[in-house]
Write a structure and sequence with these properties.
The complex is a heterodimer of chains A (173) and B (181). Chain A is an all-alpha fold. Chain A has eight helices and no strands. In chain A, helix 5 packs across helix 6. The longest helix of chain A has 28 residues, at 58-85. Chain B has 181 residues and is an all-alpha fold. Chain B has helices at residues 2-36, 39-55, 66-87, 92-98, 107-116, 119-128, 131-141, 147-154, 158-176. The model of chain B has no long low-confidence stretch (mean pLDDT 84). Classes of the chains: A mainly alpha (173), B mainly alpha (181).
């Protein structure tokens, strides 16, 4: 034991001895003044701000983080659900364009603005314009695609008949 | 959730603080009153001591231990001495010490004597030291406070504390050697 540790222990022992000589609480005649009581009540109510900030235990940090993630997740879930109901406009225009283009090709039509001298910006603008026009004016396109190859199923057809239907649309045997 | 965890902290801290207050307020008042001899100032010292305790609440592990009791009374005494020294800037004793009657002190010899003495024997000698020297010795070696911090806590000049430490150790050395200063 070095001299500092010995002095520390000796000081502690000296303090304990002094405490033993101190009168008991009953022997100390002191009634705290109102001023003192008020100040102490204020100190006790402000115990949080008075104390220095200290590091939280790790489990509290983990628990608080997990709780925050759950809360944020719950708050965002309706938005995520809503956004999944939308059809991605990019995807729609992309597939529409390709269908449209393939149809045009099959019909022997060339793309009106597919000149290689045109810039990228002008091309996309022209394509989207053309695409809009297709949907609003070409009624036969919709009708043709929707009704072609579809047979009407008689109302008296049973489920068994449907399950045994051949791929080319014939119902029943 | 984070606010809730903060409240748990605050609530348990408050309970601990109130327990300390209820248990030690009278002893702290008594300690402060012995220094200041004035009820009004002693209450001020006790209040300031409790604010200091609140700032160091983490260091207190058990409300009922003898170490805690000693710490609480020491906090009250330190604040009382601070108030006392603020009221009487220059006491006779301090003037005397600052005049430069510093005793040549052999530090290695002091360490050697302490190392070969019993703890109980040193404790007895510490309690026989005059109050200013006893206080600085206890704050220096029990609370491990450097002289500058002791000076700030007691409201004395750092030079005064250094001289009191030096003189206190010299007295302690003489007592342990069986001589008288």
């Amino acid at each position: 034991m070095d001299f500092k540790e010995k002095l520390r222990q000796a000081s502690m022992a000296a303090e304990k001895n002094a405490l033993e000589k101190m009168p008991s609480d009953e022997e100390i005649s002191w009634t705290p003044s109102d001023r003192f009581n008020e100040r102490m009540a204020k100190t006790i109510s402000e115990i949080g701000p008075i104390m220095p900030k200290r590091a939280k235990p790790l489990w509290r940090i983990y628990a608080a983080t997990a709780a925050a993630v759950v809360v944020i997740g719950l708050a965002l879930s309706p938005l995520i659900h809503k956004s999944s109901d939308f059809i991605d406009p990019k995807e729609e225009s992309g597939s529409g364009l390709s269908e449209d283009d393939s149809q045009r090709e099959s019909e022997g039509l060339s793309h009106p603005e597919s000149d290689s001298t045109q810039g990228q910006e002008g091309e996309s603008a022209a394509v989207s314009e053309d695409h809009t026009t297709d949907h609003t004016t070409d009624d036969s396109w919709d009708e043709g695609h929707c009704t072609e190859g579809v047979q009407e199923i008689p109302s008296d057809t049973s489920v068994e008949d449907l399950s045994s239907a051949s791929p080319d649309g014939e119902v029943g045997s | 959730m984070i606010v809730y965890f903060a409240l748990i902290d605050k609530e348990s801290d408050r309970e601990k603080f109130v327990a300390l207050y209820e248990k030690y307020k009278k002893k702290m008042y008594h300690t402060a009153y012995l220094v200041l001899q004035d009820s009004y100032s002693a209450e001020d010292a006790v209040h300031e001591a409790f604010i200091s305790v609140a700032r160091n609440l983490d260091k207190i592990h058990s409300v009922d231990s003898a170490e805690t009791a000693a710490y609480m009374c020491r906090a009250a005494k330190t604040r009382a001495l601070n108030i006392y020294n603020a009221k009487k800037k220059e006491t006779e004793q301090e003037s005397f010490l600052e005049e430069g009657r510093d005793i040549p002190f052999d530090e290695p010899e002091f360490e050697r004597i302490c190392a070969r003495s019993e703890v109980a024997e040193i404790a007895k000698c510490i309690n026989q030291l005059p109050s200013p020297y006893r206080d600085v010795i206890v704050l220096r070696y029990l609370d491990d406070m450097p002289p500058r911090e002791i000076a700030s806590a007691l409201g004395r000049k750092p030079d005064t504390i250094k001289k009191q430490l030096s003189r206190g150790r010299q007295m302690l050395k003489n007592m342990l050697e069986g001589g008288k200063e």
